[in-house]
Amino acid sequence: MNAQQIAWEAYQHQGACQRYSELAAAVELVEQLDPHSLIAEIGVDSGGTLYCWRQLGAEVFAITLPVPGPQYVKPHGAQLYWGDSHSDDAWNWLTDQLDGRLLDVLFIDGDHTYEGCRDDFDDYSGLVRPGGLVLMHDVLHRELLPAVGDVWDELVIEFPGQCWVMPSGESEPAGFGVITIKG
Prior knowledge:
By secondary structure, this protein is α/β, with parallel strands linked by helices. 37% of the residues lie in helices and 22% in strands. It has six helices and seven strands. Helix 3 (48-55) links the parallel strand 1 and strand 2 (59-64). The N and C termini lie far apart (32 Å). 44% of the residues are buried.
C-alpha cells in the first residue's frame, strides 16, 4: 500500500482521529524519511496512527494514558506503555526500549494543555536523531485547542528555519507542525 492507501485505511477503519489529508501527508513524509523508522508516539487514542507507522515497517513505541481503556486501543504491533508521558517511569521505559538508539520520528498528540504539550516536547525531543522529525498535531486547531498552537508558536521562534506546517487541503485543518532536528 502507498501512503494514501495506508492513511485511508487508518482513517476509515482503524480509528485515526486526524483528518485524512493531514494523515496521508504525514505518512508520506515519514515514508520518505525512512520507511523502516524508529518512532515514538505520545498519545494514542484508538491506535489509528500506530497502524500507519507499522504499515511502513517502523518499529513503534507509544506512551498513552489508559483512557478510554486498553480494550479500545489496537496496538498493531507497537509496544505500548500505559501511563502518563510526564512521569519518570514513562521516560525511563522509552529510553530502556531505545537502548541507546535515537528516534527517527517523535509524534506528539497527547496532552493538549500548554504545560502538557510543552513538557512532551521538552522531555522527548532530545531522543530524536539529527535529521529526524518531531510531528506535533493540532497546531492550527486554535479554536478548540489554543494551548497547542501557543506551544507551536514558541517552537517556531526557538527553532528558526526548522519548523513548518504540513498543508492539509482542509478548510479547517488541525495541522501537523513539523520540526526537523539539526545536529
